[in-house]
Design goal:
By secondary structure, the chain is mainly alpha-helical. It folds into two domains: 219 residues, Arp2/3 complex 21 kDa subunit ARPC3; 208 residues, Hypothetical protein af1432 (Orthogonal Bundle), CATH 1.10.3210.10. A two-stranded antiparallel ribbon has the order 1-2. Strand 1 and strand 2 form a beta hairpin. Helix 3 packs across helix 5 and helix 18 crosses helix 19. The longest helix has 30 residues. It is elongated, with a radius of gyration of 26 Å. It starts with 6 loop residues before the first helix and ends in a 30-residue tail after the last helix. Keywords: Coiled coil, Membrane, Transmembrane, Transmembrane helix. This is HD domain-containing protein.
C-alpha cells in the first residue's frame, strides 16, 4: 500500500524548482543579454496566440493528444531563440491553482533554457543565421530531446516526492505514452523551420497555422463519427408495486430524496458517505471546468442523489455479493439510473439534472447504460458525475473491494480515461486533487459529511454490503 500524498514536501520541491528556474533565467540574461527585432516580435506574437488557442481548444484523437503548445514553443526556440520561446510559452503557464501555475512556469523556463543550450551546441536561431543544414537538424533534434527529457525528469521527481511513485512506474504510465506526440511536435517544428527558409517567414507561419487548422478539422470529424449512434429503446415497464412507488416519489422534493439516500446508507453503510463525497468532488470539478454558480449547485445536488433509484431495487439483489447475481439480478440493478431520473424529474427545476442522473453510468466508448451514449452525446455534467463516482468507489471502497490509497486511486482513474471516462474531466479532477491536501484526496473531514451529519471521517477499508452499481 503506497503512502498518502506528501503535500508539504511537494510544495517545497516546487519552490526550489522555481528558485532554480529564476537563477537559470538570470544567468542566461547575464551571459547572452536581450536583443529586440520587430520580425521576431511578430513571429512570437503569432506563436503565442497559437499557444493560447490550443489551451482553450485542446485537440485529441482517442488516447493521442496533439500538443500544439509544444510545437509553438519549439518553433519559437529554433526560429528566434530561448528568450522569445519563453515569451511564446507564457499563455500556457496560467492555471487557477497558483501552485500549479508556478510549477508549470518554472518547468517550462528550465525546459526551454535546456533545449536552448542543446540547440545552440549545433546551430543558431534560424532568423539570425538563415541556415538549414545538417547542423540545424541536429540542433532541433537535440533541443527537442532536452526539452522533453527535462520535463520527464521534473515530473518524475515530483511524483516521487509527493506520492512515493517509483521511476519505473512513472516511466511506464506517464512518460512512454506521449512519446509519439512528442516526436510529432519536434518534426512539425522542423518542418516549419524548413518552410521559413525555403519560402520566407510568412510561408512558415502559414504552414504552422495550416497544420494546426488541419489537425483541428480532423479532430472535429473524428468526434462527429463517434456521435452517430442512436439511443437504445427504453427498458420494459416496472412492476405495479414499483410504478406505485414512483408516483409517490415523483410528488416529493429534493429533501425527501436526500432522506431516501440517507436511509439507504443506514442499510448498507456506504451509500450516504459515497453520496456526500461525490457531491464535493463533482462540485469542485464543475467549478474548475468553468460552469456557473447555479450549474455547480445543480451538479452538486445531482451527485448527492444519483443513486436514489436504488430504492426500487429489491433487497435480495442489493445485498447479494456481485458474483452471486444472475443476469436478471444484474439487469434489475442496472435499472437504478432510469428510476433515479423518474424520481427526480418530478422535482421542479430539476428536470435537466434528472437526465444527468440517468446517464451517470454512460461511458465515452458507448459501453455504458442505460442508453449506450458515446462521447459528446453524454452531457458534461453526467461525465462529471461519472468521474466523481468512479474515484469515490476506489478511495472509499465498495462491495467486496478494499479502499485504495490516493495514489492507487489516481492511477486506476487515469487508466479509465477515454475508454470509460472523459479524458478532459479526468485531467481536471487530477488537477483538483493535486491542489488539495491528503484529507481531501481521501474524502475525509467535515466537508465530506452527508447533509445533517457532522464529523464524519473516511470509512474504514474493506467494509462490505454497499448498494452496488454494475459497471
Amino acid at each position: 500500500m503506497s503512502s498518502p500524498p506528501r503535500t508539504g514536501a511537494a510544495r517545497r520541491y516546487i519552490y526550489n524548482l522555481t528558485a532554480l528556474a529564476l537563477a537559470a533565467l538570470a544567468g542566461w540574461l547575464y551571459l547572452y543579454g536581450i536583443s529586440f527585432d520587430w520580425l521576431a516580435l511578430g513571429v512570437a506574437g503569432v506563436l503565442a496566440l497559437a499557444c493560447a488557442v490550443s489551451r482553450r481548444f485542446p485537440v485529441s484523437f482517442g488516447r493521442v493528444t496533439i500538443e500544439a503548445v509544444d510545437v509553438a514553443i519549439l518553433a519559437a526556440l529554433v526560429l528566434l531563440g530561448p528568450l522569445w520561446a519563453i515569451l511564446v510559452a507564457v499563455p500556457s503557464m496560467f492555471y487557477r491553482e497558483k501552485l500549479r501555475a508556478v510549477f508549470t512556469a518554472a518547468t517550462l523556463v528550465l525546459q526551454i533554457l535546456a533545449a536552448g543550450l542543446a540547440f545552440g551546441a549545433f546551430a543558431e536561431p534560424l532568423l539570425s543565421a538563415s541556415r538549414f543544414d545538417v547542423g540545424f537538424v541536429a540542433g532541433v533534434v537535440g533541443g527537442g530531446f532536452a526539452f522533453y527529457a527535462l520535463d520527464y525528469l521534473v515530473s518524475t521527481v515530483l511524483l516521487r516526492v509527493k506520492y512515493g511513485a517509483s521511476p519505473v512506474q512513472t516511466l511506464r504510465e506517464s512518460i512512454l505514452p506521449p512519446v509519439p506526440s512528442d516526436v510529432a511536435a519536434v518534426l512539425t517544428a522542423l518542418g516549419v523551420a524548413y518552410a521559413m527558409v525555403a519560402f520566407g517567414p510568412a510561408a512558415g507561419l502559414v504552414l504552422f497555422a495550416g497544420s494546426v487548422g488541419a489537425v483541428t478539422s480532423l479532430h472535429m470529424i473524428w468526434k462527429w463519427r463517434n456521435e452517430n449512434r442512436t439511443l437504445r429503446e427504453e427498458i420494459s415497464h416496472l412492476e405495479d408495486e414499483r410504478a406505485r412507488l414512483e408516483e409517490v416519489l415523483r410528488s416529493s422534493h429534493l429533501e425527501f430524496a436526500a432522506r431516501i439516500v440517507q436511509s439507504l446508507g443506514r442499510k448498507d453503510g456506504y451509500t450516504a458517505s459515497h453520496a456526500a463525497a461525490r457531491s464535493v468532488y463533482a462540485a469542485d470539478m464543475a467549478r474548475e471546468l468553468g460552469l456557473g454558480a447555479d450549474r455547480v449547485r445543480q451538479v452538486e445536488a445531482a451527485a448527492l442523489l444519483q443513486d436514489v433509484g436504488m430504492v426500487s431495487v429489491p433487497d435480495e439483489v442489493l445485498l447479494s455479493p456481485p458474483e452471486r447475481l444472475n443476469s436478471l439480478g444484474r439487469e434489475r440493478l442496472r435499472e437504478h439510473p432510469v428510476q433515479g431520473e423518474r424520481i427526480l424529474s418530478g422535482v421542479p427545476e430539476f428536470e435537466e439534472a434528472a437526465k444527468w442522473v440517468r446517464w451517470h453510468h454512460e461511458r465515452v466508448d458507448g459501453t455504458g447504460y442505460p442508453d449506450r451514449l458515446r462521447a459528446e452525446w453524454i452531457p458534461l455534467e453526467a461525465r462529471i458525475l461519472a468521474v466523481a463516482d468512479a474515484y469515490v468507489e476506489k478511495i472509499l471502497g465498495g462491495p467486496g473491494r478494499q479502499a485504495l490509497s490516493a495514489l492507487e486511486a489516481r492511477r486506476e482513474l487515469a487508466g479509465l480515461a477515454d475508454g470509460v471516462l472523459d479524458r478532459d474531466v479526468v485531467r481536471t479532477f487530477l488537477s483538483v486533487l493535486d491542489s488539495r491536501g491528503g484529507d481531501y484526496a481521501a474524502a475525509s473531514g467535515e466537508r465530506f459529511a452527508f447533509p445533517g451529519q457532522t464529523g464524519r471521517s473516511a470509512p474504514a477499508a474493506g467494509r462490505s454490503g454497499h448498494l452496488r452499481v454494475v459497471g
